[in-house]
Specification:
By secondary structure, the chain is of the alpha/beta class. The protein has one domain (21-220, 267-303): Vaccinia Virus protein VP39 (Rossmann fold, 3-Layer(aba) Sandwich). It is built from nine helices and eleven strands. It has helices at residues 2-8, 57-68, 87-93, 106-121, 136-146, 164-174, 192-204, 251-263, 272-276; strands at 25-31, 34-40, 78-81, 99-103, 127-130, 151-155, 182-188, 207-211, 226-232, 278-285, 302-303. The strands form two sheets. An eight-stranded mixed sheet has the order 5-4-3-6-7-10-8-11, with helices on both faces. The chain has a three-stranded antiparallel sheet with strand order 2-1-9. The protein starts with a helix and ends with a strand. Bound molecules: S-adenosylmethionine (SAM). S-adenosylmethionine (SAM) binds next to helix 2. The site of S-adenosylmethionine (SAM) has 21 residues, from helix 2. InterPro entries: Methyltransf_16, METTL22, SAM-dependent_MTases_sf. Residues 229-251 have a biased composition (Low complexity). One of its GO terms (molecular function) is protein methyltransferase activity.
Length: 304
C-alpha cells in the first residue's frame, strides 16, 4: 500500500512536458482576399525555448509584403525557414503549389505538419519538413527531396547572433543559383550589433541586400492588412483537454468571448515603435563579375 502511494506521488518535475502548452486554437486569417486556416497558441508558450507556437509580428509583416506582391511568387519554389506556425509559407501556398515550410523543433513540427495538412485539406498543397539551420546532412536531405528553391522566406529568425552563420550556410545551399533568387528576411531588431553582424555575414556569404521600406506596401488603411476572420477555440484541444463543453451554454461567457475576438480581429501591426524596429531585407546572390564589399544598406538601395 505504501509503495503504491509513493508511486502516485512520483511526479517528475524535471520533465519538460510539465511546461508544455499544446492547447492550440484554430483561426482563419485573411490578407488581401487570401485566407488560411491555422492552429496556434493564443498566448505565449510557457516554455521559453518554444518560440514557434505563436505568430510573431515579423511573420505578419512579411505575410503582408508577400501577399501584396503575390503575382511574383506564383511560380518557382518557395521555402520558409524557422516557420513556427508557418503563416508566410501557408499564405504563399494559396498562390503557389510548390511551397515548403520548415522548422527544427519537434513540438513545432507537429503543429506545422497540422497546418500544412489544413492547407492541403483546403486544396492548397504545402509540405512541412524538418530543417535545422547549418546541419549539412539535414540540408542535403532537404535538397535531395525538394531541390533548391527560388525564394526562401524567414520571419523573426534573427534573434541569436549564433544562428546567423548557420542560417546563411543553409540559404547558400538551398537557394537556386539564379540571380533573381532571393532570401527575404523580416525580423524585429533587438540589437544594433546583431544587425551589423547580419549584414557583414551576408556579404561574407556572397549576398547583396536591399532594405524594403514598409510604407511601400504596408498601410493600415489599405487592403494588405492581415485580419482574423474567425477563431474556433473549441476545435482543437490536442492534449486531450476536453474544451469547455459543459460551459458552452453559458451565454454570458460566449458573449464575452465574442467581444474579445472582435477587439483583436486585426492582425496588423499597429504599434508604431514595433514597426520602426522591424527590418525587411531582400538578399540576392552577388553577381561574381560585379565585385563585392560590405556596405551599410540604405532603404531601397541595393548594396553590392
Ligand atoms: C521567433 S520564432 C518565429 C516563428 C515564425 N517564423 C514567426 O515569425 O511567427 C523562431 C522559429 O525558428 C525556429 N528555430 C530556432 N532555431 C532554429 C534552428 N537552429 N533551425 C531551424 N529552426 C529554428 C524556432 O523553432 C521557431 O519556430
Amino acid at each position: 500500500m505504501e509503495v503504491e502511494k509513493d508511486k502516485e506521488d512520483d511526479t517528475d518535475y524535471s520533465s519538460g512536458d510539465l511546461f508544455l502548452n499544446k492547447t492550440y486554437v484554430q483561426k482563419t486569417l485573411e490578407c488581401s482576399g487570401c485566407t488560411i486556416n491555422v492552429k496556434m497558441l493564443d498566448t505565449a508558450s510557457t516554455d521559453y525555448d518554444l518560440t514557434g507556437q505563436i505568430i510573431w509580428p515579423a511573420a505578419k509583416l512579411l505575410t503582408q509584403y508577400i501577399v501584396s506582391k503575390r503575382e511574383e511568387y506564383q511560380n518557382g519554389s518557395i521555402l520558409e525557414v524557422g516557420s513556427g506556425v508557418g503563416i508566410c509559407g501557408l499564405f504563399v501556398a494559396r498562390v503557389n503549389p510548390n511551397s515548403v515550410v520548415s522548422d527544427n523543433n519537434d513540438i513545432v513540427m507537429e503543429l506545422l505538419e497540422e497546418n500544412a495538412q489544413l492547407s492541403r485539406t483546403d486544396g492548397y498543397p504545402c509540405q512541412a519538413v524538418k530543417l535545422e539551420w547549418g546541419d549539412m546532412a539535414n540540408i542535403e536531405s532537404v535538397k535531395k527531396q525538394y531541390g533548391t528553391f527560388d525564394t526562401i522566406l524567414g520571419a523573426d529568425v534573427v534573434y541569436w547572433r549564433t544562428s546567423i552563420i548557420p542560417l546563411f550556410l543553409t540559404i547558400q545551399q538551398l537557394l537556386t543559383d539564379s540571380s533573381s533568387a532571393s532570401y527575404i528576411l523580416c525580423y524585429q531588431s533587438r540589437s544594433s550589433q546583431t544587425d551589423t553582424y547580419l549584414l557583414e555575414q551576408a556579404s561574407l556569404h556572397g549576398f547583396n541586400y536591399e532594405f524594403i521600406d514598409h510604407q511601400s506596401f504596408f498601410n493600415n488603411n489599405n487592403n494588405h492588412t492581415l485580419n482574423l476572420l474567425k477563431s474556433n477555440d473549441n476545435d482543437n484541444n490536442q492534449n486531450g483537454n476536453e474544451g469547455n463543453n459543459n460551459n458552452t451554454n453559458n451565454q454570458q461567457e460566449e458573449e464575452m468571448e465574442k467581444e474579445k475576438e472582435t477587439k483583436s480581429n486585426s492582425y496588423s501591426i499597429k504599434d508604431e515603435y514595433l514597426l520602426s524596429i522591424m527590418k525587411l531585407i531582400v538578399f540576392k546572390r552577388k553577381n561574381e563579375d560585379s565585385g563585392d564589399g560590405v556596405g551599410v544598406g540604405v532603404v531601397g538601395v541595393v548594396v553590392e
